[in-house]
Amino acid sequence: MRRLLMSALAATAAVLAVTAPAQAAAPARWQPAVGLTWQMQFSGKLDTSVKAQVYDIDGADSTKAQVAALHKAGRQVVCYVDAGSYENWRADAGKYPASVRGKALDGWPGEQWLDVRNWTVLRPILAARLADCKAKGFDAVDPDNMDGYSNDSGFPLTAADQLTFNRRVADLAHGLGLAVGLKNDLDQVKALQPAFDFAVNESCREYGECGQLKPFIAAGKPVFHVEYSAAECPTPASLRFSNIRKNLNLNAFRADC
After folding, report:
1. What's the sign of the alpha-carbon dihedral 224, 227, 232, 233?
2. Which CATH superfamily is domain 33-256 in?
């Protein structure tokens, strides 16, 4: 009797295995390599003549035609999106209720930290932004301000809250077939590296933090690094970062670092 029962269960399992719907595979996405050259420009007229393999540009201010032109020139294009803070000049600013807007970002007028715990509110806004990146033809996303928990945000955010939010943003990007970079949040690099395809860092040499990004390089994922002072360039060659120097206004100027 027991043998008959086991045979019946095995047969049922085989039928379910055949008839159950297959889980959808994640869309294929760009996998950037260590050592790529890059350019970052968020203000002024876009200069497409810079000899860099990767361009990081503002997603909302860029057009599908500009992305296509960069692709034609052999560039990969990264879509800058503010994920962890509110910007009052964006077209979708009205979608952010006051309940998720916290304290102002020091030195950045018009920006406020977001309550990244409130995924119900933030998810549809960010999903729409990333979908716009995809529609314009971008290869990847550079979500900014992914470290609200370590700042005076106005909310009691924890490291665990930030890990959850950052991974959710990465999942949104991957679900669209977009690569995604981790912006700063150096204290959680080890935990977050597996969920991200590259890192984007500002001023790690100035603050003595570059060593914290080694897990990305060790995993074969690039670190796109920018400094704003010539005195802080370059990082040690052994780190294998993609280094540039920029002006703080992030216009077309770019220098080797």
Report:
1. positive
2. Aldolase class I (3.20.20.70)
Which has the closest alpha carbon to 200: 12, 101, 22, 57?
A: 57
Phi-psi region of 107 (alpha: psi -120 to 50; beta: other; left: phi over 0): left
Query: Tens of pLDDT along 87-121?
Result: 999 999 999 999 999 999 999 999 999 999 999 99
Tokens of 239: 């780190």
Maximum Cα–Cα distance across the chain: 81
Terminal CA-CA length for the chain = 76
pTM score, two decimals? 0.89
- Rounded alpha-carbon distances, angstroms, from residue 242 to 125, 161, 163: 31, 30, 25
Half-sphere exposure of 50 (CA within 13 A, CB side): 24
Phi and psi dihedrals of 122, rounded to 5? -80, -30
CB burial of 110-143 (b: ≥16 within 10 Å; e: otherwise) equals: ebbbbbbbeeebbeebbeebbebbbebbbbbbbb
Report the amino acid identity of residue 127. A
pLDDT tens digit sequence for 20-31: 445 567 789 999
